[in-house]
Each structure stands twice: as C-alpha cells, then as structure tokens.
UniProtKB/TrEMBL annotation:
GO terms for biological process: protein import into nucleus. HEAT repeats lie at residues 386-422. It comes from the Eukaryota. This is ARM repeat-containing protein.
Length: 810
C-alpha cells in the first residue's frame, strides 16, 4: 500500500466517515511515536505552506499544539521530554517556520501558529531556551502588514495566558510596549486592536511595576478607555473586559480614573444595545463590590465607588432587569441576571438607602394614576425625582414599558402651572429629551411620532412663558422649542413658519424695550431673552434651509438692529452672529455693507474669545458663499492686528478672490511668519503635554491650510510667481514638522496637498532643489502607508506624480 502524505492524512482526519478518520488519526500517532522530530517538522511545513488547503493547515497546527500541551500534568511532562529531546537546530527550524506563518495572509493559519508558539514558549521560556522570542514578536508588531500584527499579538496573548507571570517579569516592558502599540486608537485595523486588548488582558497580572508609575498607568488606562468607544463591538467588549480585570487587580489605583472616566464609561456601557458590552459594564461594578466585600484585597481602603453614582446605577440596573427574553433558558446567564446580582451587591452597600433608590421604579403605572389626587406642592418633589428615570425608560425596547412611561409623562405635563415652576422646567427638559429620542437622528422624513402633537407642544411652551417667569425657566422653554424645531419632520414646517414670524415679532419687541431699561439686572434679563429667541431663529433657519428665504430680509434687519444697539460686551452678540452665519448664502452680498462693520468690530475684540472665534468661522462661510464678490471687503479683514487664529481663513479668502489677492500677499505672509515663530518657540522635548501637542498641530495645520489656499488662489489668477520668495521658507517649515514625530496625520495630509499644489503652480524643474529634500520622500511614503486612510493615500499618490514633474530635469 502506498504511504500517504502528511497532507492526505490530515485531510482524512476531517472526513465525516468515522473509520476513515480514526485510521488517519492512528497513522499520525504512529508517525509521532516513530520520529517525533519528523512528525513535528512535516506538520510545521504543512502549516507554513500557502499552497495547502486552509482547513488542512489548521489541522496541522492543532496537531502540533496537541502534541505539546495537555491539562494532565503527567502527560504534559511526557510531551515536554519528547520536545526537548529534539536537538536544538532541528527545534529552531520548526520554530522559524512557525514564526514565518504568523505573516500568512490566511488568518486562521496565523492564529493556530500563535497557539503553537505559545505552547513551545511554555516549555522553553522558563528555562531560557528561546531567549529572543519576545524580542522577535515585539518587532513583528511594528510590521505594516495587519495579518502579521494580529497573529503576533495573539501569540503574545497566548504566551501571557499560559506562562507564569514571574517568567515574563524581565520582558514585561517589551510586551507592554507591543500590546499598547497595537491597542491604540490610531490603529485603524480593529482586528489588530482586538488582539492587542486581549493580549493586554492576559498580561495585566505581571505589569504591576508599570501600574505603580503614574505616567505609565495613565497611558494604559487611556488606551483601554479609548477602546470602549471603538466602532467595533468586539473591541469594545475586550476593552471593558480589561477594565473589569484592572479594577480587580488594581482597585487602590482607581479613584482618579473613576471620577475622570470610568463612571461615565461603565454606566453608558450598561445601556449599550450590545448585550456583551452591557454585561461587562455590569460585571465591572459587581467585581468592584466583590473585591471589597469578599476580602479579596483586605489591606485596601474601601473607596465606596458606587455611592456617588448610586442613583444612576440603580436606575440603569432596574431597567436591565426587564431585558429577559421569553425564550431564554432559566439557568442561562444573561443581562437581567447579571443586573440582579449587581443590584444585590449594591443593596449590601447602600443598606436602607437602596429602598428610596428603587421605589421610583417600582410602579410607573401606579405613579401616573395617582397624579390627579394630591396637591401640586406634594407631588412636585416626587415628580422631580421621577423624571430622569422616566426619560430613560422611553429608550426601553419593550413597547409596553415605553407606552406606560409615555402615558405617565403626559400626566405629568398637566403640572406645568405657574406655582410649580421647577416642575414645569423639568417638563420642558422632558420635551427636549423626547424630541431628541423620537427623531432618531433622522430629520429627512415626511412625518414622525411627535407630528400630531407638534403644534400643541409649541403653543403650550410659548404660552408657559410670561414676563414674570424665571430666567432659567425661560431658557429651558426656548431650548425645548429650538430642539423641537431642529428635530421635527417635514409635515411640521407650516408650524415652524408661523413660529418664525412670532419669534421675529418678539425679537423686534425687545429692541424697543432696550431704550426703556435702566437697571443692569433688567438689561441682563433682556439680553438673555434675546439670546434665547436667537437660538430658536438659528434652528428655524437651519431646519427650513432655502424655504426661509422670504423671511431672510426681515430676520437680517432685526439682527442688525440688535448688533447696532447692543453694547460691545453684550452677551447676545454671539447668538446674533450665529443667526447671521446660518443665513449666509449666495444672496448674502446685499447684507455685507451693513454687516461688515460688525464683523470687523468682533475680529478686533480679542477679549471676547467666543465671539472672535464665531466671527473667524463666519469669514470662511461668507467667502465660500460669495467667492470673488467678497473682494471689496477684504482690506479690513486682513489687517495685521487680526490674530493668527484666523490663519486658515486667509486661504479661504485667497481662493475666493484669486489673483486679486496680490495686494495682500506681503502682509499675510508676515502674519504667517509670526505664527511659524510661535510654533518653533514651543517645546519639542518629551515633556510636552497632550494639550501642547494638539495646539501645536492645530496651529501648523492652520498655517499649511493658509499656504494651500494662497497657492491655489494665486495660481488660478496666473500670479503664482508672487510666491517665489516665500517657497523655500514653506519647505523649511514643512521639514521641521516632518522631523517632529508628534505631528498629526491631518497636518501631514495638508503638507502633501501643499507640495502638490506648489509643483503645479511653478514650471517643471523650477523647484527641483527643494523637492530633492529628503523629508519630501519620507512624508509621501508615510502617507502611502496610511492603509486605513484612503484619502491620505490618494493625496500622496497625486503629490508624488507632481513631484516627479519637478524632478524630471535632475
């Protein structure tokens, strides 16, 4: 009989026929007994071969793993002896093949190779027989290939899972570096992030020294917290699993992180529609309480983390108790059982206080039913306590729960009376939440659940405000109106049109009142009312879009009157500018002469940072709306007194006016030079804070965007030669950015755009010396490797084609 190859034997182990499968397994066992070295080598080669069937490769890998590891200690000892009897060069040959398999494009092959590597590592690493393994794996994580990174991180995870932490203590920093590298939010491949976070989970027990250092601990916590908001659900689950283990192992280090991030992340996670995320978030709190109550860390201080958020915790857990599906098995662990367990643990913490936390949820229907009887003064505190819970219950997927809650909220709305202003304010807040929930984020629909009640809601809200109403109540009511407008469906537009007319009437009335006001308190109250009305008008304009055109002149005249009659420090100015920004369109030119005076005044008022920022943003909006029509108004806008914060607007203006930007080139370039000096004066050492790095990159991006706009504008007007004396400093500035490892990808992308635009703007070969600078090639290669950013890749390819034209004469 012909001897079957290893591939054929492995194939037969997958046969549905029991006799064929058992025969193949016996022959493989026989081969292992006759020559274990030959057996492992052939399996390794089969696993490595890209020509083999993926299922056979996986079988080969599993056979290798099963020949190296076993749960029974006696059997495992035999396996260890059998492996170590293979001579060192032969073992190295097998291990090299496994390491190469980590780079296989077939992910299942890389995964099983990672398991085999971990099995061998469990045998050799305790005896220092594979000393360079961790170094090799850490190097692999730097590879550009995602399959290599993913499989390598899986191998690291398996190694950390199977080997005693004390064995890996000396290489813990190396392992942590590799794992964190793969788990960062900048890693676009979510499979790589998932493998890294799972590896981190397995490595948490032996990175105690790292957790003792605040800087390292902060970075690890940042990476894990960022993972909880990944777009990939598996990554989210893995990140929350890490948080559970971290609070179990490092409870005493958690106080700062609880207040800064973990309270919000875990409570939000409990409400995540993905039950696996919700389960881990609940488990976080259960683990937190168990660690203290069961004495797992008896020497630690009880920080009582749950008490500051006890009400919200109980609220969410009670909601989760309703999540049990009808077809679930009684003994199946699910989110409702997890919530019940956690609630029981919290009860032992809060003791008697748990009763007052649970009661508001005990009978929503009963609560709604009793609202007719008691006095408003009796019900007011109860209603205030119940509203947050009831609003949250409107998100419940159970239709009956939502229906009962909506009915109760409707009954509460009847309490909007002058003598219960606080309750009325909370009811307005309730409407805000309802409007946001009911729209579902999609307003481009003909109708929505609130359409039938929209007109009545607007009328009721407007009618609830009187001259004697408290300012906070007025603000909440107008916010509710603005929210209803911004989230409404198209069949509500007739009501919105009538509302626009009413808001204009009210706003015009406030202008007349300005002359009669004497006290500062009255002036402040009037300005707050004007700001509230402006916020509603802004949302009306944005929601109605072009349909607001018939009312645009009246709105603009009213807003210009407010700008003219208000003091320079008036709080209403910001809201008035936002209304005008919403109105900016191609027809805006007819307002520019009157409005430009107020725009310049805002730009020259740096003490009011918020107003200046809004005015800066408006310059870009106006330029994009008017194009070359904006030219007559540029002179005061481009005055040197304007701060570098508006750098990117210079580019917008240059693109809008084209060659007519000629008269502004010199003064604008001086301003940009000042901004560059500001960037160069910033610290470049490792002690920079994240805020400093972010600000530096924002300023760099503004400068490059200004250069891009100016280059494009002058080139379009056939006046690119005006840039000749400035081009070299552009390149030198870009070189300093490229040499800073902390530059952002958005800055790099903008630089590639500038490099391409300058190459287009000047004759071929004219800038050859500058395009020969090493940083240019380095930058474009960096962007071409942005596998997760297609825009950056495409821009890099385009810029490279332009660079070649400049270098053609060299």
């Amino acid at each position: 009989m012909t001897m079957l190859s290893i591939s054929e034997l492995l194939s037969r182990t997958l046969s549905p026929d029991p006799s064929t499968r058992e025969d193949a397994e016996r022959k493989l066992e026989s081969l292992a007994r006759e020559s274990f070295h030959q057996y492992m080598y052939m399996l390794g080669q089969e696993l490595l071969s890209e020509a083999s069937n993926p299922s056979i490769r996986q079988s080969a890998g599993l056979a290798m793993k099963n020949a190296l590891s076993a749960k029974d200690e006696n059997i495992r000892a035999e396996f260890v002896t059998r492996w170590t009897q293979i001579d060192v060069p032969a073992r190295k040959q097998i291990k090299d093949g496994l390491l190469a398999t980590l780079s296989s494009p077939v992910s299942t092959s890389g995964f099983v190779a990672a398991q085999v590597i971990a099995a061998i590592g469990a045998i050799e690493l305790p005896h220092n027989q594979w000393p360079d393994l961790i170094t090799i794996l850490v190097h692999n994580v730097q590879a550009p290939d995602n399959n290599t990174k993913e499989a390598t991180l899986q191998a690291i995870g398996f190694i950390c899972e199977t080997i005693d932490p004390s064995v890996l203590q000396d290489v813990s920093n190396l392992i942590l570096t590799a794992v964190v590298q793969g788990a960062r939010k900048e890693e676009a491949n979510q499979k790589v992030r998932l493998a890294a976070l799972r590896a981190l989970w397995n490595s948490l027990e032996f990175v105690k020294k790292n957790f003792e250092h605040e800087g390292e601990r902060n970075y690890i916590m940042q990476i894990v917290c960022e993972g909880t908001v990944s777009p990939d659900e598996d990554v989210q689950v893995a990140a929350y699993e890490c948080l559970v283990k971290i609070v179990q192992l490092y409870y005493d280090k958690m106080p700062m992180y609880m207040s800064q991030a973990l309270y919000g992340l875990t409570i939000d996670g409990m409400q995540n529609p993905n039950e696996r995320v919700a389960m881990q978030s609940v488990e976080f709190w259960s683990t937190n309480e168990e660690s203290i109550q069961n004495g797992e860390q008896p020497a630690l201080q009880n920080h009582d983390f749950a008490r500051p958020v006890g009400q919200k915790l109980v609220q969410v857990l009670l909601m989760l108790l309703t999540k049990k599906e009808e077809d679930e098995e009684e003994d199946e662990w699910n989110i409702s059982m997890a919530a019940a367990t956690c609630l029981a643990l919290l009860a032992s913490v809060f003791e008697d206080d748990i009763v007052s936390l649970v009661l508001p949820w005990a009978a929503v229907m009963a609560f709604g039913s009793i609202l007719d009887g008691p006095k408003a003064s009796t019900l007011s505190p109860l209603v205030e306590q119940a509203l947050p819970f009831l609003i949250t219950m409107m998100n419940d997927p159970n239709v009956q729960v939502k229906d009962t809650t909506a009915w109760t909220l409707g009954r509460i709305s009847e309490l909007m009376t002058p003598e219960t202003a606080r309750v009325a304010s909370n009811c307005a807040w309730c409407i805000i939440n309802l409007a946001e929930h009911m729209s579902g984020g999609d307003t481009d629909v003909p109708t929505y659940p609130l359409s039938a009640y929209f007109d009545g809601l607007i009328s009721s809200l407007l009618g609830s405000v009187t001259e004697k109403s408290e300012n906070n109540f007025k603000a909440t009511v107008y916010e509710a109106i603005a929210t209803l407008v911004s989230t409404c469906a198209k069949d509500c537009f007739p009501t919105v049109e009538r509302l626009a007319a009413e808001m204009l009437t009210k706003l015009n009335g406030t202008i007349a009142m300005q002359r009669e006001i004497v006290s500062q308190d009255d002036r402040t109250a009037l300005q707050e009312l004007q700001a509230n009305i402006c916020s509603v008008l802004t949302n009306i304009i944005r929601r109605m879009s072009n349909m607001i055109a018939p009312a645009a002149d009246n709105i603009m005249m009213c807003i210009l009157s407010i700008l003219s009659s208000s003091q320079r420090s008036s709080t209403v100015l910001e809201d008035a500018f936002i209304v005008i920004s919403a109105l900016s369109s191609g027809n805006f030119i007819r307002y520019m002469t009157d409005f430009n005076v107020h725009l310049i005044r805002a730009l020259q008022n740096p003490q009011d940072h918020q107003l200046t920022a809004i005015a800066v943003g408006m310059i870009g909006d106006i330029c994009r709306a008017l194009n070359e029509q904006v030219l007559p108004y540029c002179q005061p806008i481009l005055d040197r007194s304007v701060k570098p914060a508006i750098l990117s607007c210079f580019g917008d203006i240059a693109i809008a006016v084209g060659g007519d930007f000629e008269g502004f080139v010199e003064p604008v370039m001086q301003i940009i030079d000042e901004a560059i000096q500001m960037v160069l004066a910033m610290p470049v050492n490792a002690d920079r804070s994240y805020d400093q790095i972010d600000f530096s990159n924002l300023l760099r991006e503004g400068i490059i965007d200004a250069y891009v706009g100016i280059t494009q504008g002058l080139a379009a007007g056939q006046k690119a030669h005006l840039l000749t004396s400035f081009v070299e400093r552009m390149f030198l500035f870009m070189e300093t950015i490229q040499n800073d490892e902390e530059h952002s990808e958005s800055v790099a992308t903008s630089m590639a755009g500038l490099i391409g635009d300058l190459a287009d703007a000047f004759p071929e070969g004219h800038l050859a010396r500058l395009y020969s600078m090493p940083f240019v090639e380095k930058l474009l290669k960096e962007l071409k490797r942005s596998y997760y950013n297609q825009k950056a890749q495409e821009l890099a390819r385009w810029a490279r084609s332009r660079v070649k034209r400049q270098l053609i004469v060299i």
